[in-house]
């Protein structure tokens, strides 16, 4: 079985500003979370052989690129995002030989493999970090080491170099008795930040990346890559540290200040990314680079992804993902559609001339969008809202990313007890907010976890209706590392694979449109009815062709707003190119001026 063929976009059609047009300008990426994808040895964890065994499924779906969350050797403190050896595979997932087999089998099917790369930090069990504990070792300055605050006993509360809090709770500094100093960890204390100011660090990272590229991988998704350049003063010191010329921010409700304004999109980021491009990718073809871009604005996205600047092909921006979290992750509110529109429009406009967008609602760090912004209250609404959100996202301009199970309409886990959670961030947040800072009661925090925990996206892939959803053998001696969602009996790949009206079947149609219709891949974007609270509609235009996309983003009947109604004035059934229901039903809705709940359709006509 081979993947769906993609048309080549002619160079006279503008994509990201490069000539020739990049191969990925009409490609679709599928993210795999390996520990939850397919277990072949019955240990309760997914593995590389499991991914290889499911390549035909992915080729049938039609995707072009597989992005693997980390499979490197790791203590698994943060599920592999704490790497102890960049050039080995963790035994949990298999061997280097298994990785080579996966690469070969994927390439046979026309699928590319992009590896997740974490180089803002390593594991504290990495050989580099172990060596850096010796102040006389060549690795001594490979991490952000700082002495205790003057007048404080090292290792005691309050002696940390500044007031920064870690993303996963507690201080962002950890004391090392071996060195007698503190090291910075933006995330877990087992994830010390690398010091990218040191050229030796950068050289070692580039050498490792070249080793993987030479082995056959097709590029990298770069985790929190926009944190590698810290904001330091003229003397190279971090804010709030003794002797620094820069002040720290005030302490917040959890007892710490935020490091984010001083860690994101630092002054040397462009320099580091351009250097990486030269040292690793110059002279290579057929690769893809995408960066996770905390703190990067749409305007900065244009600069970083402009091919003339030689940095990254695309970035994951997060302004649209945070629109329902005005007071932070654990205070999720209902979706206000106009906010999503404005955020998406800003992203689209910023790269209209140069650069490129990544399109995503789901990944391993986000709750399932069908539960977050859709409606999973019953089967009819789940299917309709999953299709509607898919159409909304995929028919924007950019490269769509599908997270495993999204193509099935998988939902949040709906866990009811704390012992069901495995995510470090979730467990630490509960402890910090409920037990330590006492700013939230247990019941409301459990509700927050049910809505926003990363574990919502990490439950096993739902392959079939068997005991463990086909993720592992029904008679396996070990249960999956995290509970299977109970609704796998109804929501699974086996039930949807051959059904053209399923969510899976709908995703196949969306992917085929991007492959074969240049207006989807490269057409200009224009939003209609910006202030409407329920209907999200827009046009994509290329030369004399216009694609009109209309979605009712709600579980209620909604009136077709004025600009959209005017655009639909002369539409006939023959113009409809994609819909979540049948064309006749859509025409009846257009004629009545009212859209059914989660109605979604696209029409294409001569401009």
Automatic annotation (TrEMBL):
Species, as recorded: Bifidobacterium eulemuris
Key words of the record: Glycosidase, Hydrolase
Glycosyl hydrolase family 13 catalytic domain residues: 31-458
Family of the protein in this entry: Belongs to the glycosyl hydrolase 13 family.
Protein's GO biological process: oligosaccharide catabolic process
Keyword check for Phosphoprotein: no
Origin superkingdom: Bacteria
GO molecular function: alpha-amylase activity
InterPro entries (UniProt xref): GH, GH13_cat_dom, Glyco_hydro_b, O16G_dom_2
Protein name: Alpha-amylase
């Amino acid at each position: 079985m081979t993947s769906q063929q993609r048309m080549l976009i002619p160079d006279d059609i503008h994509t990201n500003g490069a000539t020739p047009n990049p191969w990925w300008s009409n490609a679709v990426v599928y993210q795999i979370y390996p520990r939850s994808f397919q277990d072949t040895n019955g240990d309760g964890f997914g593995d590389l052989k499991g991914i290889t065994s499911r390549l035909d499924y992915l080729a049938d779906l039609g995707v072009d690129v597989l992005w693997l969350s980390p499979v490197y050797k790791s203590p698994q403190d943060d599920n592999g995002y704490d790497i102890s050896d960049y050039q080995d595979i963790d035994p949990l997932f298999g061997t280097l030989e298994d990785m080579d087999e996966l690469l070969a089998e994927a390439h046979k099917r026309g699928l590319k493999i992009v590896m997740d790369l974490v180089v803002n930090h390593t594991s504290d069990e990495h050989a580099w970090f172990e060596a850096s504990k010796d102040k006389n070792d060549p690795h001594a300055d490979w991490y952000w080491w700082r002495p205790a605050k003057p007048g404080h006993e090292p290792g005691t509360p309050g002696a940390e170099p500044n007031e920064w809090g870690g993303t996963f709770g507690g201080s962002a500094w950890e004391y090392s008795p071996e060195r007698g100093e503190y090291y910075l960890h933006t995330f877990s204390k087992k994830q010390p930040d690398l010091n990218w100011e040191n050229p030796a660090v950068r050289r070692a990272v580039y050498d490792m990346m070249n080793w993987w590229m030479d082995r056959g991988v097709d590029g990298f998704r770069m985790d929190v890559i926009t944190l590698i350049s810290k904001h330091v003063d003229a003397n190279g010191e971090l804010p709030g540290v003794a002797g620094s010329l820069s002040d720290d921010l005030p302490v917040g409700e959890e007892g710490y200040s935020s490091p984010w304004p001083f860690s994101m999109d630092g002054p040397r980021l462009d320099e580091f990314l351009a250097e990486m491009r030269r040292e690793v990718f110059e002279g290579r073809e057929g690769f893809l680079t995408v960066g996770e871009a905390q703190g990067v604005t749409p305007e900065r996205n244009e600069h970083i992804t402009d091919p003339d600047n030689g940095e990254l092909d695309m970035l994951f921006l997060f302004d649209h993902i945070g629109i329902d979290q005005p007071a932070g992750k654990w205070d999720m509110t209902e979706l206000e559609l106009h906010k999503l529109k404005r955020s998406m429009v800003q992203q689209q406009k910023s790269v209209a001339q140069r650069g490129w967008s990544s399109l995503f609602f789901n990944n391993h760090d986000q709750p399932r969008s069908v539960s977050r912004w859709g409606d999973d209250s019953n089967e009819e609404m789940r299917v309709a809202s999953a299709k509607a959100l898919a159409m909304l996202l995929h028919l924007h301009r950019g490269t769509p990313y599908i997270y495993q199970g999204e193509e099935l309409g998988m939902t949040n886990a709906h866990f009811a007890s704390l012992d069901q959670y495995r995510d470090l961030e979730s467990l630490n947040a509960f402890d910090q907010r409920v037990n330590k800072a006492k700013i939230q009661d247990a019941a409301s925090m459990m509700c927050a976890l049910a809505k926003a925990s990363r574990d919502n996206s990490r439950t096993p892939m739902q392959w079939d209706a068997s005991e463990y959803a086909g993720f592992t053998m029904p008679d396996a001696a070990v249960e999956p590392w995290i509970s299977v969602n109970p609704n796998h009996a109804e929501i699974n790949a086996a039930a949807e694979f051959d059904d053209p009206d399923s969510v899976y079947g709908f995703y196949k149609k969306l992917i085929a449109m991007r492959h074969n219709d240049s207006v989807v891949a490269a057409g200009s974007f224009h939003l209609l009815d910006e202030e409407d609270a329920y209907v999200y509609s827009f046009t994509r235009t290329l030369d004399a062709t216009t694609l009109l996309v209309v979605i009712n983003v709600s579980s209620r009947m909604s009136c077709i707003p004025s600009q959209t109604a005017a655009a639909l004035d002369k539409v006939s059934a023959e113009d409809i190119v994609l819909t979540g229901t049948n064309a006749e039903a859509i025409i009846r809705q257009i004629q009545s001026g009212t859209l059914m709940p989660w109605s979604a359709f696209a029409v294409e006509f001569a401009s």
